[in-house]
């Protein structure tokens, strides 16, 4: 083999090695680019996923805050509504209490009322001997009707006439002073309180007590009227 053949073979070998090197380099470049693209996509997806999670979390926080704000406003509105309703109910009762003060102004009717209250109390107690308390200003009226009340009770209960002792040491409180509307002193608009001699059984039959009982009984109806009854369909 002459020098030209050797040189030609060497050049072919060099070209072959160079071609393999270039192909290997190209494969490495392509593989590196693919790995880069894959990693880039993974990072991008991870970033997107994190953004979505942050967005969902913040969206939930906003939704929870809206619900809390709505609930708070709703509760505040309910409290205001109930407070306004209670204010109206209180004013109704206060107005009724003022009307009670005028009951005792009508002497004849008040005298009949006191007698009825005494009879009713005797029928509830059914005691042979009772202690009666009234306002000091009503003592003479009570004394004027007490015998007739005893007689009517005995006829209704079909028992003997009871002994009624009017307490002349402890009286029921006087009516409220109109000049002191905000006073919290004890007061009584009228009526009587009867008790057994041992004090174990008490019948409070004052106008104020009867108003309290009537008001408690009628309170659901009052609240219904304030809220408003649902309209019934008309034919």
TrEMBL record:
The keyword rRNA-binding does not apply. Pfam families: vATP-synt_E (PF01991). Keywords: Ion transport, Transport. It comes from the Eukaryota. Belongs to the V-ATPase E subunit family. HAMAP family: ATP_synth_E_arch. This is V-type proton ATPase subunit E2. It comes from Camelina sativa (False flax).
């Amino acid at each position: 083999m002459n020098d030209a053949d050797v040189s030609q073979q060497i050049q072919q070998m060099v070209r072959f090695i160079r071609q393999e090197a270039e192909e290997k380099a190209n494969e490495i470049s392509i593989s590196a680019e693919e790995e880069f693209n894959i990693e880039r996509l993974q990072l991008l997806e991870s970033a997107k996923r994190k953004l979505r999670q942050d967005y969902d979390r913040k969206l939930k926080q906003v939704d929870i805050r809206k619900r809390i704000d709505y609930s708070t406003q709703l509760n505040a509105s309910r409290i205001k509504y109930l407070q306004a309703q209670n204010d109206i109910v209180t004013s109704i009762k206060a107005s009724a209490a003022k009307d009670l003060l005028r009951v005792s102004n009508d002497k004849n009717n008040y005298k009949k009322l006191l007698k009825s209250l005494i009879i009713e109390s005797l029928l509830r107690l059914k005691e042979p001997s009772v202690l009666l308390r009234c306002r000091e200003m009503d003592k003479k009226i009570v004394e004027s009707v007490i015998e007739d009340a005893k007689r009517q009770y005995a006829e209704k209960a079909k028992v003997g006439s009871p002994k009624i002792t009017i307490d002349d040491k402890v009286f029921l409180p006087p009516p409220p002073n109109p000049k002191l509307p905000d006073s919290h002193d004890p007061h009584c608009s009228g009526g009587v309180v009867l008790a057994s001699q041992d004090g174990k059984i008490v019948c409070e039959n004052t106008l104020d007590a009867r108003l309290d009982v009537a008001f408690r009984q009628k309170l659901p109806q009052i609240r219904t009227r304030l809220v408003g009854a649902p309209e019934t369909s008309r034919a």
